[in-house]
Write a structure and sequence with these properties.
Largest sheet: 7 strands, mixed
Shape: elongated
Distance between the termini: 84 Å
Keywords: Hydrolase, Magnesium, Protease
CATH architecture of the largest domain: 3-Layer(aba) Sandwich
Strand content: 15-25%
CATH topology of the largest domain: Rossmann fold
Strand order of the largest sheet: 10-9-12-13-14-11-15
CATH superfamily of the largest domain: P-loop containing nucleotide triphosphate hydrolases
Structural class: alpha/beta
Radius of gyration: 35 Å
GO biological process, one term: response to stress
InterPro entries: AAA+_ATPase, AAA_N_dom, At3g28540-like_C, ATPase_AAA_core, Mitochondrial_chaperone_BCS1, P-loop_NTPase
Number of domains: 3
Number of strands: 15
Catalytic activity: ATP + H2O = ADP + phosphate + H(+)
Protein name: 26S protease regulatory subunit 6B like
Bound molecules: adenosine-5'-triphosphate, magnesium ion
Number of helices: 17
């Protein structure tokens, strides 16, 4: 490596020396011609080749320049002596980069490469569509001619991948929204973004630990599954349907997924999308390594089927199978949405996760639930005892070990365990009680939670008792009526009364029906 470095340095030195001699002695035109000639001769006999990566390529910004800068920042911090330090907007980390006109050695598959960051003054242009920086910046990559096949294009792909990774690690997640409707910004983007700072993680998510581990393993496999998806001929994407009552952690789960994988979130507001083609455009403008979310899919839009008619609210034969019509082009249809997640268009870009959430899974069109459409259906349930222990740890700092070791919580904990499932309390409600009582000691907070649970259980019981009471009163009234009827036999024949008695014994309704009017 050192040997390459010395020979490159001496060659560049010799080249610079000849250029300066030419500059001093000959007129400009002659100098230019001679320099060109010298350059060609130098290239012809040299064992090295050079690649120039300029910051601005024509009128557009060269993506590779930024990627090289980031890539070198990962090795620059250890080997170079002059470094530029920066902290990009929205980033939570500092990045090192090569200083102006400094050089750095790198290696790839056993072959050496020398990078130089060249900065020269840019002469003011006579005309330009946009203001250009005063300095012309670029990287020069020098490699041995015989190593060209090793470097191209694999080294450049490697640089792009590493840079994307660093960018993701350094940058906070972004949350995109299509709240502008179909309108695009100046750069033609339909999405608006803000830094995504949701602190929810799988560690703080209160749910059954076994189910949680299954989901985490599934996500891990997905993120590392590029070759699997290629080998099996499947698009590299995955769909999750999160369903359950409000406040059970569906949105928190999405945030935890994004934080776990380091993906951005695209929060798709379906009410802002008017046609299938608008939906497709939005999809095309999403980046890979992202989660595309449609919350409350059952009520975010009233879909029209392919004929343009509104879909019935309850499960019906699949709307995706309806015959095509020109009306669908002008509206948002369920089949348009299914194509968005499933069809050919869904594969533009890769490594994307689709998440739909709903409070009413029974209201969804069967086409959405059909096997293979959403890969995993995750039920977010009311608080269970293992989930409760996670919330006690989150809000009161009580680890599992603390709860087991300190006998003082024994009674309280057992009562909570007995009540929690029956109370049907959501993690959101438990969190609320624990937040309210966080300034007191743990025992008091737990006791307060127990009180709330008992009150809820009593209320639930109360409504059940009320239902029983209502039933009892009805029966009493019925008996009363029968008594009255028996007291006045003239009004009804004995056959009729016998029939009534028989019905009463068998529990059959008066009209002979199946008891539709009964309180169940
Ligand atoms: N499983 C959970 N683990 C930890 N915290 C939770 C959980 N469920 C709810 N919470 C707490 O309750 C709040 C509301 O939860 P979240 O918004 O995730 O519920 P949701 O299921 O998306 O509700 P909705 O159906 O109304 O959208 C969260 O900010 C979080 O603090
Ligand atoms: Mg939610």
């Amino acid at each position: 490596m050192k040997e390459v470095w010395t020979s490159v340095a001496s060659l560049l030195g010799a080249f610079a020396f000849f250029q300066s001699v030419l500059l001093a002695v000959f007129p400009a035109e002659l100098r230019q011609a001679a320099a060109k000639l010298l350059h060609r001769a130098f290239n012809l006999f040299s064992n090295y080749c050079y690649f120039y990566i300029t910051e601005i390529d024509g009128v557009s910004t060269n993506e590779l320049y930024g990627a090289v800068q980031l890539y070198l920042s990962s090795s620059a911090s250890v080997s170079a002596s002059h470094l530029s330090l920066s902290r990009p907007l929205n980033s939570s980390a500092f990045t090192f980069s090569l200083s102006n006109n400094d050089r750095l050695l790198d290696s790839f598959s056993g072959a050496a490469a020398v990078w130089e960051h060249a900065v020269t003054h840019r002469p003011a242009p006579s005309f330009s569509w946009r203001p250009l920086p005063d300095e012309k910046r670029g990287f020069t990559l020098c490699i041995r001619k015989k190593d060209k096949h090793i470097f191209l294009p694999h080294y450049l792909d490697h640089i792009m991948d590493v840079a994307a990774d660093i960018r993701r690690r350094n940058q906070d997640r972004l949350l995109y929204t299509n709240s502008r409707g179909g309108a695009m910004d100046a750069l033609g983007h339909p999405w608006e973004s803000v830094p995504f700072k949701h602190p929810s993680t799988f560690d703080t998510l209160a749910m059954d630990p076994i189910r949680k581990n299954e989901i985490m393993a599934d996500l891990r496999d997905f993120a590392a599954g590029e070759s699997f998806y290629r080998k099996t001929g499947r698009a590299w994407k995955r769909g999750y349907l999160l369903y359950g009552p409000p406040g059970t952690g569906k949105s928190s789960m999405i945030a935890a997924m994004a934080n776990f994988l380091g993906y951005d979130i695209y929060d798709l507001e379906l009410t802002e999308v008017h046609t299938n083609s608008e939906l497709r455009k939005l999809l095309m403008k999403t980046t890979s390594k992202s989660i595309i979310v449609i919350e409350d899919i059952d009520c975010s839009v009233s879909f029209t089927n392919r004929c343009g008619h509104p879909l019935p609210p309850s499960p019906q034969p699949s709307a995706a199978d309806d015959p095509p019509s020109s009306a669908s082009a002008k509206s948002l249809t369920l089949s348009g949405l299914l194509n968005f997640t499933d069809g050919l268009w869904s594969c533009c870009g890769s490594e994307r996760i689709f998440v739909f959430t709903t409070n009413h899974v029974d209201k969804l069109d069967p086409a959405l639930l059909r096997s293979g459409r959403m890969d995993m259906h995750i039920f977010m349930s009311y608080c269970s005892f293992p989930a409760l222990k996670i919330l006690l740890r989150n809000y009161l700092g009580l680890e599992e070990g603390d709860l087991a070791a300190r006998g003082e919580y024994d009674g309280l904990l057992r009562e909570l365990e007995d009540l929690v499932e029956a109370t049907k309390i959501t993690p959101a409600d438990v969190s609320e009680v624990l937040i309210k009582n966080r300034r007191y000691d743990e025992r008091t907070a737990m006791a307060q939670l127990l009180e709330v649970m008992k009150a809820r259980a009593a209320a639930r019981c109360g409504s059940a008792v009320a239902a029983d009471e209502f039933g009892r009163k009805e029966a009493e009234e019925e008996e009363e009526q029968e008594k009255r009827a028996l007291d006045s036999p003239k009004e009804e024949s004995t056959e009729e009364l016998d029939e009534k008695q028989r019905r009463k014994k068998t529990g059959e309704a008066e009209d002979g029906g199946a008891g539709e009017g009964c309180l169940s």
